[in-house]
Amino acid sequence: MNVTNLPSPPSALTAIILAAGMGSRIRPLTDNCPKCLLKVGGITILERMITNIRECGIADMIIVLGYLDSKVENFVANTFPDLSVQFVVNDRFAETNTGYSLMLTEALTRETGFVKFDADVVFDKNILRKLIDSDYENCLCIDRNIQLDAEEVKVVVEADNRVVEVSKTADTKLAIGESIGIEKISSTCAKALFAELRAVMAQSANHQQYYEFAYEKLIEKDTSFHALDITGLDWTEIDTKEDFLSANQLFGCGRDEELRHAEVDQDFMLNHGNPDLPALSR
Q1: 83: Cα separation from own chain's centroid
Q2: pLDDT tens digits, residue range 55-98?
Q3: What topology does CATH give the domain 13-237?
Q4: Which is nearest to 134 in space by CA: 45, 252, 11, 257?
Q5: Three-state DSSP state, 127
Q6: For the whole prediction, is pTM greater than 0.90?
Q7: Domain ranges of the chain
Q8: How buried is 206 (Cβ within 10 angstroms: 0-12 exposed, 13-18 middle, 19+ buried)?
Q9: Radius of gyration of the chain from Cα atoms?
Q10: Residue 158: exposed, middle, or buried by beta-carbon count in 10 A (0-12, 13-18, 19+)?
């Protein structure tokens, strides 16, 4: 019996999935489809995410919608009819960012701790199990085996693995890796985090800030965040067409039916998008 495939015991944590974005960098694939409903390895990103969350023992979910919100809500209702889920719509998705979306979930969290997911991350469920089981109350999943450039959310830590900086502008020479977009936040920290988000978002100039901006504000006030090393476990974030093809290679390789899905998507992109994309290999 493979122990890793056994369902986890119920968790008191809530899952918060941020799925409001337009996915503009991966167009035309997202012209009529939310990014989280694109298929990777023959399964939509969101379906894989929700399945992983449930199998790791988290029953309650909050999903922040925005772009093509009804398509996501209908998909969830049809695919997971018994799911305990609440939806909140960020009507200002075109002019705001992840910090604003996360702020909108405050009233629905009922002051519980939560795990926050970016809806464009495809990941091995053992990453989530490791996160839930971690003794750290507040922690960010980080991958050390990443070429750090301007786009990555970089993490700088002290000797005790305590995070001192988490941002795209952090010095690559000081950073130990990339934050993958999945974090665990305790109930105590959640109260302070939402208060910080409200204060930050009170100024319209901050509406494009990422949620990490609020994390850093809390770190400055001596709230402890730690880095959880998940290096070696499979994950990918899908921002571009190249990311999408790489994700299908990572999560579809060796499964002919899933590769056929990936090849169809690749053909679409080659005909409508970037002609220089690499070919999928078997």
Answers
A1: 19
A2: 999 999 999 999 999 999 999 999 999 999 999 999 999 999 99
A3: Spore Coat Polysaccharide Biosynthesis Protein SpsA; Chain A (3.90.550)
A4: 11
A5: helix
A6: no
A7: 13-237, 241-272
A8: middle
A9: 18
A10: exposed
